[in-house]
Amino acid sequence: MLNDFLMRAGLAGLGVSLAAGALGPFVVWRRMAYFGDAMAHAAILGVALSLGFHISIFVGVLLAALLVAVLFIGLTRRSQSADSSLGVIAHSALAFGLVAVAMAGPRVEVEAYLFGDVLTVSRADLALIWGVVAAVVLWLIWRWQALVTWVLSPDLAETSGYNTKLEEMGLIMALALVVAVGIKAVGALLITALLIIPAASARPHVRTPEAMIALSLCFGALAAVAGLRAALWLDTPAGPSIVCTAAIAFALSMIVAKVRGR
Fold first, then answer.
1. Domains plus CATH for the chain?
2. How far is CA 9 from each of CA 95, 115, 126, 134, 238, rounded to the nearest angstrom?
3. pLDDT tens for residues 224-246?
4. Are 157 and 147 in contact (CB under 8 A)?
5. Is 214 buried (19+), middle (13-18) or exposed (0-12) by CB count in 10 A?
6. Which of the listed ranges 37-46, 136-145, 235-244 does the model predict with the highest average pLDDT?
7. Which residues contact residue 175 at a Cβ distance below 8 angstroms, ignoring those fewer than 6 apart?
8. Summary mean pLDDT of the chain
């Protein structure tokens, strides 16, 4: 079954969408969309590091994403505003990454890293993607109560005995993992969309955090499967097609919510 590249592509897209859909609600609740964007832009710098030091693309992108997190925390602690810090980091990392990748040689296809190429996923890539999915799910189950309390009120989380800095770093690490595996499926410029759009689609229709996670997963899975099918039918790039499908689902979700009066 795994010899069929379409099956591998479908499983890869589904895995990335599920991992992003599970973390997306926390990105929406904590208003971290721009932070996710900064990490995704840094992925191109991670690709350049991988090519320069001859290491795995996954490792390079993960290190770059974590570097963004460290820089962001350092700048905000020095009285820099969060939005300006993220703006400087995101666009600088993207620019330096594009220049570094271009210097690596003409054979490097930047578009594959910007927009993804899920149809070229290998068995090793598939194992890595689903390994990240398992790690994210297990981490969410383990830290669920602490994470929900932190989302509701950091002060309440502190008084309840939870280390809010530790929970924040755990979420940042999980986001870095998803960005690192997502670059293969939908690319650096679009992975943030899979974090935000399914969660935003689910938000008007739920009343509990658990329900929002579940519905976000459903929207993410729908985007992956339907988007890949649309890409094959219309002969369009797979990654952007998945995100377009997620956007259409979001629009329909908002219409349904409006009709229901929410």
1. 5-189 (1.10.3470.10)
2. 29, 15, 9, 18, 9
3. 999 999 998 998 888 899 999 99
4. no
5. middle
6. 136-145
7. 23, 27, 32, 35, 36, 39, 65, 195
8. 86
